[in-house]
Specification:
- With 195 residues, the chain is α/β, with parallel strands linked by helices.
- The protein has a single domain (4-191), classed as 3-Layer(aba) Sandwich (Rossmann fold), CATH 3.40.50.
- 41% of the residues lie in helices and 17% in strands.
- Strands 1, 2, 3, 4, 5 and 6 form a six-stranded parallel sheet that branches.
- β1, α1 and β2 form a beta-alpha-beta unit.
- α1 (15-29) packs across α7.
- It is globular, with a radius of gyration of 15 Å.
- It starts with a strand and ends with a helix.
- It binds flavin mononucleotide (FMN).
- Flavin mononucleotide binds next to α1 and β4.
- GO terms for molecular function: electron transfer activity; FMN binding; NAD(P)H dehydrogenase (quinone) activity.
């Protein structure tokens, strides 16, 4: 059995993309297949490295991890626009019972990372996804002095630029692993009609 995990992110200058790559390491470590996808922002150029997500890919995934830079305490509008185009998937319940998680990158501490992570989870809950965080048994969550929180993976640029600290990297890998392990278990449950 395989588990395809979409890592859907928007990144203008690469910091969120670096976090997406660390999460992909975690997906691979747990035996999943990371599918790196992005969205393009209206009037706000996005990273061109990965392909734009299609609605078909969205409904076929076994899990989804959503990433955005902090934009005044919220996700980037390009991602919000994307979710507003997913009504058909929502009405058919195509993401229901699949695991999800969120990640973000911001320029400084205490300036909107937690509100961004929590609000990014809202459309995923509306889609019936099962939201995963990072537990306190993950040492990076207790030891970090920059990003990484129980609400999701994160990175603080101040003093580090795009480079993740070791704790930010470890937390991002742990989140990728956690969603992938959940994806395998939930896929089995869906196949057996239990979800
Ligand atoms: C319009 C705008 C609003 C932003 N708002 C915040 C903010 O509220 N808090 C914060 O820490 N950083 C904020 N930033 C900075 C970005 O979140 C930060 O530089 C991020 O790491 C960029 O990610 P990227 O390299 O993936 O594009 C803002 C940037 C822009 C352009």
């Amino acid at each position: 059995m395989s588990a395809s995990i979409i890592i859907l992110y928007y990144s203008r200058s690469g910091a969120t993309q670096t976090l997406a790559d660390a999460i992909a390491d975690g997906v691979l470590k747990a035996g999943g297949e990371p599918l790196m996808r992005t969205v393009t922002g209206a009037g706000d150029p996005a990273s061109q490295r990965d392909l734009e997500i299609s609605q078909d890919e969205l409904k076929q995934c076994d899990g989804l991890i959503l990433g955005s830079p902090v934009r005044f305490g919220h996700m980037a509008s390009a991602l919000q626009q994307f979710w507003e185009q997913t009504s058909v998937t929502w009405l058919k319940g195509e993401l229901e019972g699949k695991p999800a998680a969120v990640f973000t990158s911001g320029s400084s501490m205490h300036s909107g990372q937690e509100s961004t992570l929590l609000s990014m989870g809202v459309p995923l809950l509306h889609h019936g996804m099962l939201l995963c965080g990072i537990p306190y048994t993950e040492p990076a969550i207790q030891q970090t002095q920059s990003g990484a929180s129980p609400y999701g993976a994160s990175h603080v640029e101040h003093g580090h630029g795009k480079h993740l600290t070791e704790h930010e990297y470890q937390a991002a890998v742990a989140l990728g692993q956690r969603v992938t392990v959940a994806a395998f278990a939930l896929k089995t449950a869906r196949t057996q009609g239990k979800l």
